[in-house]
Amino acid sequence: xxxxxxxxxxxxxxxxxxxxxxxxxxxxxxxxxxxxxxxxxxxxxxxxxxxxxxxxxxxxxxxxxxxxxxxxxxxxxxxxxxxxxxxxxxxxxxxxxxxxxxxxxxxxxxxxxxxxxxxxxxxxxxxxxxxxxxxxxxxxxxxxxxxxxxxxxxxxxxxxxxxxxxxxxxxxxxxxxxxxxxxxxxxxxxxxxxxxxxxxxxxxxxxxxxxxxxxxxxxxxxxxxxxxxxxxxxxxxxxxxxxxxxxxxxxxxxxxxxxxxxxxxxxxxxxxxxxxxxxxxxxxxxxxxxxxxxxxxxxxxxxxxxxxxxxxxxxxxxxxxxxxxxxxxxxxxxxxxxxxxxxxxxxxxxxxxxxxxxxxxxxxxxxxxxxxxxxxxxxxxxxxxxxxxxxxxxx
Length: 395
Fold this sequence. Notes:
This protein is an alpha+beta fold. Among the domains are: 5-104, Helix Hairpins (Orthogonal Bundle); 264-388, Sandwich (HSP40/DNAj peptide-binding domain), CATH 2.60.260.20. The protein has ten helices and 15 strands. The chain has helices at residues 5-9, 17-31, 39-55, 58-65, 88-96, 128-133, 278-283, 293-298, 355-367, 384-392; strands at residues 120-126, 135-146, 162-163, 172-179, 182-189, 198-199, 212-223, 232-235, 251-257, 264-266, 269-277, 285-290, 308-313, 322-325, 341-348. Helix 2 runs antiparallel to helix 3 and helix 2 (17-31) crosses helix 5 (88-96). The longest helix has 17 residues, at 39-55. The N and C termini lie far apart (110 Å). Keywords: Chaperone, Cytoplasm, DNA replication, Metal-binding, Repeat, Stress response, Zinc, Zinc-finger. Its main location: cytoplasm. Zn(2+) 1 binds at residues 147, 150, 204, 207. A zinc finger (CR-type) spans 134-216.
């Protein structure tokens, strides 16, 4: 191969190693057989690879500049012979922009022993009133905490970690395999130190070198007003302590709201049913309805809000009628105000009557001409013409 190697890469003779590497990457991206499979381009790629193989090695470059044979007669001009020493990493770097190159290419380095701990999740059941108005709970959690003997470094008292002799503290070792492309050099985590770059000769007996132990501890969690089932309360840095005494993760408390005997929650609204006698529905009445605040008083809490509200049932109220009490629902979690309390009226029909009661009801039925009522069925859906007919012919 008579062409000047510097001209092949398109660099001056005084180019430094970085300029030679950049030139090779640029040409390799253009000429690689996977990009341009024609024979002429493949031959040009071999020339570029051969030039880079020589000029990237200081000793071979010095021999070439002095006019000698940089391979000592070993490798062919193609640069892919058995004597080829450029790394497959160089080709990968040309396409993926890696920072390493050749045998001297840098790796990722040792992985740290100190890492952030994992987040933890616990579930907490609360009453509806506690979810609505907020509460404070004491929790017992079982998580990883900092080892008090070694204070997180994992070594027994009086000892320290030592540099791994296998990898020299790099945490990685080179593996070389031969292929049709030459020598493929890869980096693998060091098996001796498991990629840490150091070895603990005397691990702490309390934590076995992990820097943390499991322990049960107490936490106070404040449940904000307005939470619902599925809401998660985050406690920063109260989760698992990381390996090597690393910073703790977060603890999440997931809320589950227990069912209430009287109220059902729909968003921020509360729904309940009130059963009234037939006579009360017909004549009208008012009742004192307990509110959700009554549960707080029952559990010993103090509140300035009324625990009952007067519910006005108008005369002639039908079963299924809903009465809305504004602002008596659940406080909004991230906002002002409260939802509503929706009361559904259920009219109770008596099933057992004595003679006098039955006599009075029959007398009432006669006065209202309801002794033999003609029941009628109302269609669920009317046609457009039917609705127009009813509008112009009211009953």
